[in-house]
Amino acid sequence: xxxxxxxxxxxxxxxxxxPDKQSDDMLRNISQSAEKELVDFIFxxxxxxxxxxxxAIAVIKEHFSRPVILFPGNASQVSANADAxxxxxxxxxxxxxxxxxxxxxxxxxxxxxxxxxxxTGYILIDCxxxxxxxxxxxxxxxxxxxxxxxxxxxxxGEMLGLKALYLEGGSGANTFVNPExxxxxxxxxxxxxxxxxxxxxxxTLQQIYECGADIAVIGTIIEKQPTLLSEMMAVVKKFQ
Length: 240
Ligand code: 1GP
Fold this sequence. Notes:
By secondary structure, the protein is an alpha/beta fold. The protein contains ten helices and eight strands. It has helices at residues 2-6, 24-36, 53-63, 101-113, 132-137, 147-159, 179-188, 202-211, 220-224, 228-238, and strands spanning 12-17, 41-44, 68-70, 84-90, 116-124, 164-168, 193-196, 215-218. It has an eight-stranded parallel β-barrel, surrounded by five helices. Helix 2 packs across helix 3 (53-63), helix 6 (147-159) packs parallel to helix 7 (179-188) and helix 8 (202-211) packs parallel to helix 10 (228-238). The two termini are 21 Å apart. The model has no long low-confidence stretch (mean pLDDT 97).
């Protein structure tokens, strides 16, 4: 079970790949370097994906031997080629399509594909700038300086039986999730915490882990500066 690796007391890094932003050559290069640098997971998905998620995963898997996990923006991105799926409930929002609608559409497909589903509370935090996820999900993020609301939301997710929490600033966000929110959610909840959005430097990655993130997700900065992956992984290794 891939989820078991989420619960180990060891910091992990996931590289986010948006299939629409990568040619096959770019996918090969990034997967090879993720394999070499011992990146723990590749997440595949995006708020809006118009190319084939299945094709992208097939290319990634030619070069990357560790788990490839779907991080879908909606039910159309489910692919049997993946190893698991973050079965996301957008619990910071109040849009039923992202709380149950897409789940009903995709559950039979996930079952038939024998994909491991990891029920995950997806919590958007306002980190500056209008993000694609906010627009596409038609939900409002929790304000940056309202840790009490973030903690209450996270607790509700845990009490509903979700198995992980994803604190999301949004891809390409101006800044990363408020460290106070990460700390407070970590203190209040006992399920693994994933943090992503706006992580651009090794120093930020270190800070996020020190606040209590179990898994950090980086995407945009590695698309722009692929060589930074090795510096990011050096931070992960400090915690192992
Ligand atoms: C977005 O958390 C991820 O869902 C990654 O964000 O692209 O800003 O690294 P970035």
